[in-house]
């Protein structure tokens, strides 16, 4: 084979690597819609606390801390709870439309705009999963998501879709793993095999089976090296095809499902699974189609509307151009983030893609929780966070001190950002006084830490962040 023949075959090789089965696109769209609905429902439990002026982050504080981006959130139009609830309900409806395949392009656009608005309204309750969620919703705008239905009775061969947008969506997922692997390799704990042991010693994030895994050090050491190897080998998700790609994608999906069962990581594992569905090749989806009962196949599914991008060549060309620019930006920003390329002058020190530093270069080495002793008008003392008696001893389960992952994220930022402490104290006072006659007069915020020492005794330390009156 001469050089010219080899060059002609390069586009074919790239096409096979970046092609996505239409049924994978359908599953991706449905999974994103489901993730959005789940995300909104979990946020609703803390709607007042995190998204209203009566909560821990009034709009005045948000505008003070983020004056440039705050105006771009639809949730900053009003600080009332009913307005936020209405926008959350609209976001959930957009997720349902995406899940069911109704006006897919419009549903994806609304989902992205509304989700970004929610994220901007309170950036202190976000993690890497939220960042990846936004990115995947962006790529969904450029992908042909109204593809073949699993209920289709059409047995004709399925033609994979290979565009700049499919390449960008696949690269987006691999970049998360690749960047995380590069940062982990710069630390010592992952190379020593102790990192996962430290992760499962963090009692404030372990849940379910995670609480029991810390007593299995050999197993955790094996999982440490296995996960690190998977991250380093993540480019094979694109470089491989067929069964090899299926095995690797299923391995990553299984790993994220295990994370969801053992660690309090919010929407991150589910969003990762959504992106990994794009890597499953035709053989996997053929098996899924065969598993769909004939009774379900006989139900006539609504024919999807023809998308604007498929109808108008000019629009399709513009979408391709946007996708190509987005791919270039994706690779460039991540190259800067991991230090492969020098950042241009004026670039912020912490690029958003540093969110991919999950437990890297090394995991934290301390479990932490809060104690909030408060004095009531009667002279009694309670813990303003739990409503129970003040107890500064180490709780049996530190994760139980947080109502959810987003409270853990916010309280972690309270330690680092003094401007968040007064709004938090005011919210705790207001929440108690709204339902009790014996009103709270002052509250103290105390940060408790227990340093992890494998095989050694651990000591609890207390840091008082401040005492605030409730007037």
Key features?
single chain; 471 residues; alpha+beta; five-stranded antiparallel β-sheet; 5 strands; 54% helix; 7% strand
Q: Report the count of strand segments.
A: 5
What is the structural class?
Answer: alpha+beta
Global Rg: 24 Å
Contiguous runs where pLDDT drops below 50 for at least 5 residues: 4-10, 298-302, 306-310, 345-353
Give helix and strand order, one letter per element, not per position: HHHHHHHHHHHHHHHHHHHEEEHHEE
How much helical structure, as a percent, in the residues? Answer: 40-55%
- Terminal CA distance reads 83 Å
Give the overall shape: globular
Q: Number of helical segments?
A: 21
Mean pLDDT: 86
**Major pleated sheet:** 5 strands, antiparallel
How many structural units, i.e. domains?
Answer: 2
What portion of residues belong to β-strands? 5-15%
Q: How are the secondary structure elements laid out?
A:
Layout: H1 3-18, H2 22-44, H3 47-51, H4 59-65, H5 81-100, H6 104-121, H7 128-142, H8 164-184, H9 189-192, H10 195-199, H11 210-213, H12 217-232, H13 236-239, H14 242-262, H15 268-276, H16 282-291, H17 294-297, H18 308-311, H19 313-337, E1 366-371, E2 373-376, E3 381-383, H20 405-416, H21 421-433, E4 440-451, E5 460-469
Antiparallel strand pairs: 1-4, 2-3, 2-4, 4-5
């Amino acid at each position: 084979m001469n050089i010219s023949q080899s060059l002609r075959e390069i586009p074919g090789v790239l096409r096979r690597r970046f092609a996505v089965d239409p049924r994978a696109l359908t599953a991706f769209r449905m999974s994103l819609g489901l993730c959005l609905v789940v995300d909104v429902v979990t946020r609703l439990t803390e709607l007042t606390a995190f998204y209203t002026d009566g909560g821990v982050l009034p709009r005045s504080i948000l505008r003070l801390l983020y004056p440039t981006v705050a105006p771009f959130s639809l949730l900053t139009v009003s600080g009332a709870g009913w307005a936020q609830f209405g926008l959350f309900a609209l976001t959930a409806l957009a997720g349902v439309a995406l899940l069911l395949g109704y006006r897919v392009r419009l549903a994806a656009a609304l989902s992205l705009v509304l989700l970004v608005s929610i994220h901007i309204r309170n950036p202190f309750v976000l993690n890497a999963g939220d960042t990846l969620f936004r990115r995947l919703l962006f790529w969904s705008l450029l992908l042909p998501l109204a593809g073949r239905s699993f209920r289709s009775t059409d047995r004709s061969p399925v033609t994979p879709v290979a565009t700049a947008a499919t390449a960008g969506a696949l690269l987006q997922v691999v970049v998360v793993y690749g960047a995380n692997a590069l940062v982990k390799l710069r630390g010592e704990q992952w190379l020593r095999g102790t990192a996962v042991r430290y992760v499962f010693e963090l009692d404030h994030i372990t849940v379910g089976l995670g609480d029991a895994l810390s007593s299995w050090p050999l197993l955790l050491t094996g999982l440490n090296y296995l996960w690190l190897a998977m991250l380093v080998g993540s480019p094979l998700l694109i470089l491989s095809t067929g069964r090899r790609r299926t095995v690797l994608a299923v391995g990553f999906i299984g790993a994220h499902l295990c994370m969801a069962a053992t660690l309090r990581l919010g929407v991150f594992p589910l969003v990762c699974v959504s992106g990994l569905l794009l890597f499953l090749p035709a053989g996997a989806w053929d098996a899924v189609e065969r598993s769909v009962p004939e009774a379900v196949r006989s139900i006539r599914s609504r024919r999807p509307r023809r998308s604007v991008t498929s109808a108008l060549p000019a629009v399709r060309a513009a979408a391709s151009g946007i996708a190509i620019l987005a791919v270039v930006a994706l690779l460039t920003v991540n190259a800067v983030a991991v230090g492969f390329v020098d950042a241009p002058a004026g670039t912020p020190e912490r690029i958003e893609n540093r969110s991919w530093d999950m437990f890297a270069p090394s995991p934290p080495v301390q479990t932490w929780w809060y104690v909030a002793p408060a004095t009531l008008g009667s002279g009694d003392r309670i813990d303003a966070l739990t409503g129970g008696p003040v107890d500064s001893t180490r709780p049996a389960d530190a994760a139980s001190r947080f109502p959810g992952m987003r409270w853990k994220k916010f309280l972690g930022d309270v330690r680092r950002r003094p401007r968040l402490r007064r709004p938090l104290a005011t919210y705790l006072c207001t929440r108690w006084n709204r339902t009790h006659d014996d009103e709270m007069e002052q509250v103290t915020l105390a940060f408790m830490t227990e340093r992890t020492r494998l095989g050694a005794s651990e000591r609890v330390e207390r840091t008082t962040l401040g005492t605030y009156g409730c007037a």
